[in-house]
Amino acid sequence: MIINDFSKENSLISKYIFELRDVSIQKDSMRFRRNIERIGEIMSYEISKTLNYETVKVTTPLGEKEVYVPDNKIVLCSILRAGLPLHNGVLNYFDSVENAFISAYREHPNDDDDDFEVIVSYLASPSIEGKTLILVDPMLATGKTLENVLEALKNHGKPKQIHILSVIGAKPGIEYVEKIFPADTHLWIAAVDDSLDSRGYIIPGLGDAGDLAYGEK
Ligand code: URA
C-alpha cells in the first residue's frame, strides 16, 4: 500500500484536523462538515496528480491549443453516513465521476461485551470494472468496514486502481487494510493515531464523525 500521510508535512490540513478534534469547535456541525469537505478537496487535488492524462484539442474564441485532461473513469464510493462530507469534497473537484453509496453499521452480537460485526445493508454502485475506485471512509478505525465494502463491491467488477481517503486512521486499522487491499492501493490519510478503545473508537480521534456531522442517533 502506498501511504500518503498528510500529518508528516506542513499543510492547511493540520489546522482543519485541529478544529475537527477540538471539543469546543467540533460542536459547530456546519464547520465540522466543511472542514472534512475541505480535506476531501485538498486530497482530490493530490490524487489528480497520480491519474493518467490524455491530450485533447481545445478551441478558444481566438484559436486552438492542445491541453491535457485526466482520462480515468472514476467511481467515488462513500460509506454512509459519515462519508458524505468527504464525498462532497471529492465531488467538488472531480465533478463528473460516477457515484456509489454503501451503508455499513456495527452490530453487537452480545450485550455484555464490546465485540461487533460490520454489516453492509445497502449498496448502490455502477460497474467498477477497469475503473479508478475512490473509497471514502473518514474514520479508519479497525479496517473491518473497508474489508466488508471491498467484499461487497466484488459483484460490481475489478477496479484498475483503488484510492482510499480517510481523515483519521488508527495504526491497527491501517495495518489491517494494508493486508487485504492490493499492494498498489493508495491510502490518503490526514492524521494517524496510535490506538483504539474497546468499542473500536480511535484514541484520541475526534469522537463519532457521523453524529458530529449529522446529529446523534
Ligand atoms: N467511527 C467514528 O466515527 N469514530 C471513531 O473513532 C471510529 C469509528
Automatic annotation (TrEMBL):
Enzyme Commission code: 2.4.2.9
Cofactor annotation: Mg(2+)
Molecular functions per Gene Ontology: GTP binding; uracil phosphoribosyltransferase activity
Ranges for domain Phosphoribosyltransferase: 12-215
Class of enzymatic activity (EC top level): transferase
Known pathway: Pyrimidine metabolism; UMP biosynthesis via salvage pathway; UMP from uracil: step 1/1
UniProt keyword annotation of GTP-binding present: yes
Family under the similarity heading: Belongs to the UPRTase family.
Known function: Catalyzes the conversion of uracil and 5-phospho-alpha-D-ribose 1-diphosphate (PRPP) to UMP and diphosphate.
The protein's name: Uracil phosphoribosyltransferase
Annotated gene: upp
